[in-house]
Amino acid sequence: MGRPEKPLATLNLGLLDLARWLREIRTNAQLTYVELAAKAANTYSATTLQRAASGKNVPRLPVVEAYAVACGGSLEQARRRWRNARAVEHGTVHALGSAPRPRLVENAAELRAALREMYHRAGAMPLREMERRAGWGRLPRSTMRRMLDGATMLNKDQMLAFLTVCDVPEREHQDWLDALSRVWDKRYSWYDNELFKNLHEPTGTNLHEPAEQCIRDEWNHRMERKPPSGRGRSASNAGAQPSQFARGRPANRNGKRLKLGVTTTG
What we know:
The protein is mainly α. The chain has helices spanning about 15-30, 35-40, 45-50, 60-70, 75-90, 110-120, 125-135, 140-150, 155-165, 175-200, 210-220, 245.
C-alpha cells in the first residue's frame, strides 16, 4: 500500500470528513495511488488523487467522483461530503440560513437570495462545471453569474437545470417553480390588469378577441419567456424618429454633420 499518509490537520470539519472517507474507501479497495489512477483510466494522475485525500484543500468535484468510482464508493456519498466541505469553507463569507424558504418567497430579491444560498449549500460549484453538467445551452454560466449578482432571473427551464445540478430533491422542485411563478406574476400584474381593463371596456363587440387570445397565450407560456431586457424603445415610441443625437453627430440645416465643439451661424 506504499508509505503511510500524513495525518489530517484542518479546521474545516467538512473537509476532514471528506478526506477521511476517501482514505477509508481506498484502504478498503486495497489500491495504491498509482493503481487508483490506472483504474480511473488515468483521467487524473496519482499525485492529483493523493492530493484530494490530503485534507489541505477541498478538491474539485470531478476528482472526488473519479476517486470514489475507482474505489467502488458511493457517488451520492462523495457528492454529499464534497458539498458539505465546500459549504463549510464558504460559510464564513456567505451567511447560510438567512434567505427565506421557497414557499415564503414573494419577490425577485428574495428568490435570488434563496437561490444564492442554495448554490452555496450545494458547494458553490464553479459555474463552468455547472454549465457542463446541465448540458449544452441549458444553463449558461453568464446567466448564472448575472443571477447570482442580482442582475437577472432564471426562466423555468434554467431553474429546473439549476435545481438538478445543485442536487435539490425532485419533490422540492415544484416549490421553487411556484416561487418563480409568483415573482413573474408580480412583475406583470400591473401590465395585465391595465390591459385587461382596457380590453373589457367595450361591451357587446368582438373587436378585441385577438388581443385577448394573445394575452391568454402570454399568460400560459409566461414561464418560458425571458424577462424584458429594458433596452430599446418602448412600444409607444416604436414609430418615432430617432433624434439627431441618436443617429450620430448633430447636423445643421443643410444636413451636414458637425464636428464636436464647432458651431455654425445662420
